[in-house]
Design a protein that fits this description.
Helix content is about 60%, strand content about 0%. It is built from six helices and no strands.
């Protein structure tokens, strides 16, 4: 293997700079913002919000998530996402669901 090829291989295999942990989302500023975030989080198609994003919604999001989880008119994926959100938010009402 030539020196240039070895140098290229080492450069490609070398670890990059350390990645910073993603910042925790800020809590919603208003009820309208919380409702918009809930709607967006329930609509994710690939993956989903981080646990920190769900927790940032706070316990005030529990009633809306309970309604979404129990609504037979909601898409199954949205109902499942609501339950996921409840599991990350926690609390007695979320656990009861």
């Amino acid at each position: 293997m030539s020196t240039a090829a070895l140098a290229l291989a080492l450069a490609l295999l070398a670890p990059g700079p350390p990645r910073a942990a993603p910042a925790s989302p800020a809590p919603p500023a208003s009820d309208a913002e919380r409702a918009a975030r809930i709607d967006a989080y329930l609509g994710f198609i690939h993956g989903g919000p981080s646990p920190a994003a769900w927790r940032a919604l706070g316990p005030e999001a529990v009633p809306a998530l309970l309604r979404a989880a129990a609504d037979p008119g909601e898409a199954p994926s949205r109902r499942a996402a609501a339950l996921t959100g409840l599991s990350w938010i926690g609390g007695a009402r979320a656990r009861a669901a």
